[in-house]
Structures are given as C-alpha cells and as structure tokens.
Amino acid sequence: MELRQLRYFVRICELRSMGRAAVELGVGTSALSQQISRLESELSTRLLQRLSTGVAPTAAGVAFLHQAQLTLRHADAAVLAAQQARLSGHVSVGLAPTTASVLGVPLLQAMRQSYPDVRLHLVESLSGHLATMLQARQLDLAVLFQTNTLRRWSVAPLLEEKLFVIASPALPQRPVGAKVRLAQLAGVPLILPSADHGLRATLTAAFARTSVEPLVVAEIDGLALLMDAVRAGHGATIQPGAAMARHAGDDLQHSQITDAHVGRRNLLVSLSDDELSPAALATRVVMTDTVRKLVQGGLWAGASLLDH
Question: 15, 85, 178, 203: least buried by Cβ within 10 Å?
Fold first, then answer.
C-alpha cells in the first residue's frame, strides 16, 4: 500500500468522480482506476461503488476513508517536522462559544510560545456539533460537556463550572445578591438557548427537580446575540462563568446558583492516542496546562479543576 494510493482514494471520495479526480491529480482515468483496483485487491474488499452520477465509498470504503485521511495528515506532519527539525503540523481544536470566550486566546498564545510551528485551527460551535466533527475526524481535540464513551475516544475530566444568573441592572425582576437558588427564579424572565443546546437540557432537568416552571421569554442559540439581549434588559440568562469573559467591562450583574445539582462538567476529548499526531498530543498537554493556569489564576469564573 502506498501513500499515493491513499491520496488518490481520498480525492476520489471527496469529488465523487473518478474523471474529475484524475484531472485534479494529473493522471489518466484508466491509471487511476488501476491504482484503486490494486488497493482493493490488497485489502480484499470493495472500496468504491459505481453510480450513475459518479462513484461513492462502500461501507468498507467509508471506514477506510477515515483512517486514510488520518494517515495522510500524519504523513504530511512528519514531512514538515523532518524539514524543519522541530515539532510542526496542523491541529484542529473545537470549543463551545462560552469555553472559547475564556480559553481561546490564552490557548493560542500558549501554543505560539511553546510550538510556534504548529498551526492551530480553532473551531467554535455547539458541543453536540463538535462531537459530530470529532467523530468524523474533522477535529483532533475538543472540550465537550458530555460524551458517548463507547466511541474510541480519549476522555479526561477537565473542570466543573458553576452556573450564574446574568442580568442587566435595568431588569426589575433580576435576583439580588451574589448567590441565588433556582427556586428564587420563578417569575424571572429568562432568555435561554433552545432545546437542542446541551445547557438547556441541563437547566430543564434542574428546574424540574425544584418543581419550578421557568419563564422563558426568548430562545437564542448565539452567545453574542443572547448577551446583547440580556444587556438590553429583555431578560436574564443562565450561563457558566466563562460567558462573562468577553463582558468584563459591562455593568451586568451576576448571581451564582448554589443548588448542588446545577453545574456543567467539562471534558477534554480527543481521538484515541494512536490516532493523534505528535503535534496534537503536544496541544492536548498545552490545553490542560492552560486551563489549570486560568482556573488557579481566578480567570475562569465559577470553575474548579477536576482530577484526571
């Protein structure tokens, strides 16, 4: 099996066309087909199926595609490392919007200081979307709030976050004081993420335990817009302390929810160790160290470290 064959196969799958792939790769269609046939013979399985509209990977082809993409990424990183004689490569990291607010820039700075030749790709999206991208091998690492441990992932507990009620001083129903319980939020107009958001599911379960029906006046999934609506006094919201990182200069008031069962657990999740490149393994160490420094330095509101 040759890297050339893997590159051919991956490009065919991406373009869904043998002819288009041949043009982009600069080889003849018959030569390209022969290389794929040799690859299938070596693996003793069919990787591509011919369709009226082109080609598509079989079930075996999809499984092989994921590993081929990883192999090519690692091979490219190895070439760069050999050329530059120090750790290099490309690492993709997924962060939820609230997590990115407090961790994104410090992580970028720490990586540039420790591994300036590693190109970091930061992806900001909802935790559920990040899990899907990780499963598709589009990410190397991500901070998630829940995970299916049946997948071949490496999962390490990172930190526990307390949740806060955040409101404008102009909101008459806002809680007063540094601490509040969920039972005191009855009648407080709330702006929350939609039901598809993991935080909303956590809050729904928490309110149910306290027999309180929350007064949800709006649902907003984008963190920036949600905080704009809160700042404008349209309602309060419930978020982890990280959500306030970009609003330190605002006059928003926040009260920590003291109910024992209300919080969010952060997990550092990555592909299995044997699938990670040296650059990704190094990035995972830097992420853990950066989180520890932020929490110990009091820069991550309401967060406490979890033992690995």
Answer: 85
Candidates 281, 272, 304, 275; CA nearest to 291 is 304
Cα separation, 25 vs 80, whole angstroms: 21
Partners of 155 in beta bridges? 269
What domains appear along the chain, each with residue ranges and CATH number? 3-81 (1.10.10.10), 86-160+265-305 (3.40.190.10), 163-262 (3.40.190.10)
Task: Look up residue 284 and give its two tokens.
Answer: 């995972």
Tens-place pLDDT, residues 181-212? 999 999 999 999 998 788 888 899 999 999 88
Average of per-residue pLDDT values in the chain:
89
- Are 151 and 261 in contact, with CB atoms under 8 Å apart? no
- pLDDT digits over 58-117, tens only? 999 898 988 888 888 888 877 766 655 567 889 999 999 999 999 999 999 999 998 998
